[in-house]
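Record type: ASSEMBLY
Status: queued
Input:
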Amino acid sequence: MYNWKCLLKNGSILEQYDDKREPKEISSDTIDHLNVETFVLFNGENLVYILHMDPGQRLIYRRRTELAAGERIPLVCHLVGWQMTVSGENVQSIAYCFEDGVIESVGKFRDNHPWFYSVVPTKKEMEENNAANSTI
Amino acid sequence: MVATVQIIRKTGTAGAEDVSVINDGTTGINTRANAYDTHSTADTTNPIRIPAASSNYSYWVSTRLKCTVSPAGTINNVKWFSDGTNSMGTGVTCVGELASTGANAGYIQATGTPGTTGTVLSMANHTGMDAEPTDVFAWTTGSPKTLTATISNPSTGEFGEHFVYQVVVASTASPGVTTSETFSWRYDET
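Status: finished
Output:
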């Protein structure tokens, strides 16, 4: 199962799972999306994907799961990318890391695509997007 | 652990439904749409009778998502879709729609004449339906049905709208077990 770790700009490290912490698992929505230096996806302890962030970029992360009646194994894809407000426009870059090892990258969400469609922003992401838009 | 989400099928009296797991996150089980209100994976005792004219129907099948291990954050962006191809044979189709209206989050027990036909799935007969049912094969992986469905930490249990479908058998159908269809759900988790 894939998991993530995050190096923040202040040098601290945030991990999805930490046995010494309560709760042991945290949501990716707890990450300060604007202050990520590096976001790393692991398969167990093996590196899968590393995202290096530039100033102004806001992290996007989701675990996307497909369940089907009659299909034994759920399909899981991890969306790892960034969004940034440039001249009032939302610019994105997203890697789709499938748990079978395939990684596909796209420059923006594609709403008529089986896997590349957009996420629903969390309240925190909407606040971050609004703050970014108001500082243009 | 990330959230554990199941696809469930509900049968029985509204408010005290029987819940059967169609996919528990590791094992997927096809469900049969027979002419009785019981979850079945292989039973052929109550088939839909081919009519001499017009159409007969399966009992409608009510499905929904259920979370048994809470997400660390939120699950949302839920989609439902078919494989886009009706493989059930000549004279056999399937219609469906979301149900969330009224009590029990839109769940209404299926009715009909066991072994012959179910009651037609319509807004008049199923008062929990959000719209009249249409061909399920129009909803595909690239053009899915979007559900209103969210569950956040720390919560478990059923969530979101039901997806209700019904197999329709016309007089032109041939006897026998139809080919299985795959109906899928997709969701995002933070």
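Annotation: Residues 46 and 115 of chain B are 4 Å apart (CA to CA).
Annotation: Chain B has a mean pLDDT of 93.
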